[in-house]
């Protein structure tokens, strides 16, 4: 009985560590989505037009959603 509970505890711990690593890597990645004419990441949404490369700051809603996901899946 005790061995089964320790095995479950170890599995939960490993799962949490894997989730934290994945969240850290996805946050640290430079560009999350890249297309032929646009790219977006945590801080900027950029468009490649004829006149050049134009970037706008990402909305606070996207950053807030990332923080919520981090807290939900990280804790």
Verbal overview:
This protein has a four-stranded antiparallel β-sheet with strand order 1-2-3-4, with no helix packed on it. The chain has two helices and four strands; from the N terminus they run H-E-E-E-E-H. The protein starts with a helix and ends with a helix. By secondary structure, it is an alpha+beta fold.
Supply the helix-strand structural class: alpha+beta
**Discrete helix count:** 2
| Shape, principal axes of CA atoms | elongated
DSSP helix fraction: 55-70%
As laid out across the biggest beta sheet, the strand order is 1-2-3-4
The major pleated sheet works out as: 4 strands, antiparallel
Please give the radius of gyration in angstroms.
Answer: 19 Å
Summarize the helix and strand pattern as letters. HEEEEH
Which consecutive residue ranges, at least 5 long each, have pLDDT under 50? none
Overall average residue pLDDT: 78
């Amino acid at each position: 009985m005790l061995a089964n509970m320790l095995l479950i505890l170890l599995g939960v711990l490993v799962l949490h560590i894997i989730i934290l690593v994945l969240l850290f890597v996805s946050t640290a990645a430079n560009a999350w989505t890249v297309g032929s004419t646009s790219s977006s990441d945590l801080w900027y949404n950029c468009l490649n037009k004829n006149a050049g490369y134009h970037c706008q700051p990402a909305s606070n809603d996207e950053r807030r959603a990332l923080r919520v996901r981090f807290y939900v899946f990280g804790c």
